[in-house]
C-alpha cells in the first residue's frame, strides 16, 4: 500500500501532518493496472479503482468522500478546497481541473496522481495549510509549484515544508535535444544526460530548485519510477496505473 509514509503529531500550537506515497501493491486492479491503481482516467475498471480508493481512505482513517482528487491537466492553475479561506463550502464533488490543490482543513486529504511526473506535497504546520501539486514537464516549465506557493502565501502560509516524491529520474527521462533545451532555459539544473549519453531532463531537480528558491525546506525522497517495479511508470509500461502522493493536516491541540 505505502511506498513511504510519515505522521508528524501536532505539538502545542503547531498542526501535525500525515503524508504518504503509495506503491502498486495490495489493491484489486488486474493487469496492466495491477494492483493498487488509484486513477480513473487510465482505462481500469471503475469498481476496482473505487475499491482501491476506499482502501487508501480507510488506511488514513478517512472516508472515500474525504479524499480530494484533481482532474490534472498539465497546467499551472491552482484551486483551494471548499471551506478553506474565502472559498465557500459547497457539495460540488467534481474534481477541479487544476494541478495544484490547497486545503486548510483537517477533515480531508489531498491527492496527486502520478506515474513518472513529480508529486509535491506541502505543509505549513504553523498557519495550518497543506497542498498537493502535480509537476510534469509542462508543469515544471510553466511553474505550477511557484504558483501554488504564491496562492498558499496569499492565504496566509509562511513557513512551508515540502516533500518531493519519486519520479522518472534524469538518467531515464530521454527527450529530444530541443525539449531538454526548453526546460533548461527555465531551470538550468534540469538539463540531464541518459544512461546512454543522450539528452534528458531531470524534472525533480528543476522542481526542487523552484522550492529552494522560494525558501521552502525540502525533503526529496530518493527513487526512480522507471527503475522501481513497485511504482507505476508510464515511460516503462505505457498503459498502466497511477500511484499517489497524499497529504492531510492534523488538528493542533487547543491553545488558550
Ligand atoms: Zn531512473
From TrEMBL:
The keyword Metal-binding applies. The keyword NADP does not apply. It comes from the Bacteria. Keywords: Copper, Hydrolase, Metal-binding, Transferase, Zinc. Belongs to the purine nucleoside phosphorylase YfiH/LACC1 family. InterPro entries: Cu_polyphenol_OxRdtase, Cu_polyphenol_OxRdtase_sf, Cytotoxic_necrot_fac-like_cat. This is Purine nucleoside phosphorylase. Transmembrane segments: none annotated.
Amino acid at each position: 500500500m505505502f511506498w513511504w509514509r510519515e505522521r508528524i503529531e501536532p505539538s502545542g500550537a503547531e498542526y501535525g501532518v500525515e503524508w504518504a506515497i503509495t506503491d502498486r501493491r495490495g489493491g484489486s486492479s488486474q493487469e496492466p493496472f495491477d494492483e493498487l491503481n488509484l486513477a480513473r482516467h487510465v482505462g481500469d475498471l471503475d469498481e476496482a479503482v473505487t475499491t482501491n480508493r476506499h482502501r487508501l481512505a480507510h488506511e488514513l482513517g478517512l472516508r472515500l468522500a474525504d479524499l480530494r482528487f484533481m482532474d490534472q491537466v498539465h497546467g499551472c492553475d491552482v484551486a483551494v478546497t471548499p471551506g478553506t479561506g474565502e472559498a465557500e463550502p459547497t457539495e460540488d464533488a467534481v474534481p477541479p481541473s487544476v494541478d495544484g490543490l490547497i486545503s486548510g482543513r483537517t477533515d480531508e486529504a489531498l491527492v496527486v496522481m502520478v506515474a513518472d511526473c513529480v508529486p509535491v506535497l506541502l505543509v505549513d504546520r504553523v498557519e495550518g495549510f497543506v497542498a498537493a501539486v502535480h509537476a510534469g514537464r509542462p508543469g515544471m516549465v510553466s511553474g505550477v509549484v511557484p504558483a501554488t506557493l504564491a496562492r498558499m502565501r496569499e492565504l496566509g502560509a509562511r513557513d512551508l515544508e515540502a516533500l518531493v516524491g519519486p519520479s522518472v529520474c534524469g538518467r531515464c527521462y530521454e527527450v529530444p535535444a530541443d525539449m531538454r533545451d526548453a526546460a533548461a532555459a527555465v531551470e538550468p539544473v534540469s538539463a540531464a544526460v541518459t544512461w546512454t549519453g543522450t539528452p534528458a531532463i531531470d524534472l525533480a531537480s528543476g522542481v526542487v530548485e523552484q522550492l529552494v528558491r522560494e525558501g521552502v525546506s525540502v525533503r526529496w525522497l530518493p527513487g526512480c519510477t522507471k527503475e522501481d517495479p513497485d511504482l507505476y511508470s508510464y515511460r516503462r509500461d505505457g498503459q498502466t496505473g497511477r500511484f499517489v502522493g497524499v497529504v492531510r493536516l492534523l488538528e493542533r491541540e487547543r491553545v488558550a
